[in-house]
């Protein structure tokens, strides 16, 4: 198992779903944890309690990813609370139903602008060996059904950002990678939802993934095993884009 003892990590959107699983996996590997949330204080506090009950250290920070100043402040707060910052996992994300100007602005602010702002703020705190891991989507790579253009667009931009940052930060020994999940059973995309059978059928494995299966890849990339992986897109999608 990856050993992250002595490291400090920030996971955005760590109160539920994939982000909560990532926070748990990094903490179980020994990292001190900060996690952000938007509305679910109780859920965020529950993740902190779970980490503490296993002997770990964790702090929850309320920060709306749509608010640029709050994103930067949350990174600085995490580094200050934990005394350092080695790992940033930009996970918080949303889907929207329509294409109103308000929805376009919000999804781009949360899914695209916030990861960039968080990375820019985090690299100031990181030293050699730092890790930035973004959570994109298989839909940022290939769009296999209609009606998801805005979300796909917001996630495709993450790939360009990841590659550029890998070049910018490589000379400092900081790696930057994007993990692209396929259908994962969470509040956002329940395995019992109306489009679930269609998504399941697109996978090679014929099933939804579990948040812990994404978290395991993130923990690997965050640890020593990920040292020579940078600028990469890593699918954890059950073969959706195979
Ligand atoms: P969930 O909706 O289950 O959880 C979303 C998390 O992000 C929550 O912790 C939530 O906090 C937080 N969040 C949402 N909006 C904001 C915001 N404006 N500011 C701060 N935090 C916010 O989503 P998933 O766990 O399913 O998704 C996590 C990531 O994985 C997203 O980027 C998503 O796009 C991506 N993904 C998910 C897939 C899936 O099938 N589930 C597939 C591919 C990618 P709070 O609890 O406070 O609302």
Strand-pairing-aware structural class:
alpha/beta
Number of strands: 7
Which small-molecule ligands are present, each listed once? NADPH dihydro-nicotinamide-adenine-dinucleotide phosphate
Strand order of the largest sheet: 3-2-1-4-5-6-7
Strand content: 5-15%
> What is the fold-level CATH name, i.e. the topology?
Rossmann fold
CATH superfamily: NAD(P)-binding Rossmann-like Domain
Summed up, the helix count is: 7
Q: Low-confidence spans: pLDDT under 50, at least 5 residues? A: none
Distance between the termini: 27 Å
CATH architecture designation: 3-Layer(aba) Sandwich
What does this protein structure show overall?
- The protein is of the alpha/beta class.
- The protein has one domain (8-236): 3-Layer(aba) Sandwich (Rossmann fold).
- The chain is built from seven helices and seven strands; from the N terminus they run E-H-E-H-E-H-E-H-E-H-E-H-H-E.
- A seven-stranded parallel beta sheet has the order 3-2-1-4-5-6-7, with helices on both faces.
- Helix 1 crosses helix 7.
- The longest helix has 23 residues, at 101-123.
- The mean pLDDT is 97.
- NADPH dihydro-nicotinamide-adenine-dinucleotide phosphate binds at residues 13-19, 36-40, 43, 64-66, 91-94, 110, 135, 137, 181, 183-184, 186-189.
């Amino acid at each position: 198992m990856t050993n992250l003892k002595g490291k400090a990590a920030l996971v955005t959107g760590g109160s539920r779903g994939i982000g909560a699983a990532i926070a748990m996996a990094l903490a179980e590997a020994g990292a001190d944890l900060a996690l952000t949330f938007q509305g679910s204080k109780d859920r965020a506090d529950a993740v902190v309690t779970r980490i503490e009950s296993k002997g770990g250290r964790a702090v929850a920070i309320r920060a709306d990813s749509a608010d640029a100043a709050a994103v930067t402040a949350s990174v600085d707060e995490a580094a200050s609370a934990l005394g350092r910052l080695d790992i940033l996992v930009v996970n918080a994300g949303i889907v929207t139903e329509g294409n109103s100007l308000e929805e376009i602005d919000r999804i781009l602010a949360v899914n695209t602008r916030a990861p960039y702002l968080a990375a820019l703020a985090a690299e100031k705190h990181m030293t050699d060996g730092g890790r930035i891991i973004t959570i994109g989507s298989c839909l940022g790579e290939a769009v296999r059904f209609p009606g998801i253009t805005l979300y796909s667009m917001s996630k495709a931009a993450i790939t360009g950002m990841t590659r550029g940052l890998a070049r910018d930060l490589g000379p400092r020994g900081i790696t930057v990678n994007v993990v692209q999940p396929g259908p994962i059973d969470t509040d956002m995309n329940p395995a019992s939802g109306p489009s679930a059978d269609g998504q399941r059928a697109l996978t090679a494995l014929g099933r939804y993934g579990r948040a812990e299966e994404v978290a395991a890849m993130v923990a690997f990339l965050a640890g020593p095993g990920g040292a020579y992986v940078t600028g990469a897109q890593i699918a954890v999608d059950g073969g959706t884009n195979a």
